[in-house]
Amino acid sequence: MDVTFLEFCGEGREQQNMRKSRFSEEQIINILREAEGGGTVDAVCARHNLSKATFYGWKKKFGGMDVNEARRLRSLEEENGRLKRLVADQAVQIQILKEVNAKKW
Question: Cβ distance 65 to 25 under 8 Å?
């Protein structure tokens, strides 16, 4: 195969990962429970050096979850992203093959 084709399809380059959170799922769940247990949101955010926006984003995403459920959610999100990239790469390859087959030899 042509080297440029491999680079275009992303097979020759390393995958760029997003930055990981400073907090694990367990820590996030514990912070949310701490606020539910009677602490004010301002105090909890100050204690853990969080913004209110981060806290409420976590509450929207992880509110009412158990630690195992949060871990499962993260693994499913990672798998979903991987599968979306796979589908996008396949779509590009199909488009390239269609263009090659459409040319008159």
Answer: no
The pLDDT tens digits for 23-77 are: 888 999 999 999 998 889 999 999 999 999 999 999 999 988 899 998 999 999 9
pTM given for the model: 0.62
Q: Which of 86, 69, 88 shows the shortest CA–CA distance to 25? A: 69
Proportion of the chain in helix, strand, coil states, percent, rounded to 5: 70, 0, 30
Q: How far is CA 52 from CA 4, 30, 57, 97, in A?
A: 46, 16, 8, 50
Residue 12 half-sphere exposure, CB side, CA atoms within 13 Å? Answer: 9
Token readout for 11 is 């097979």
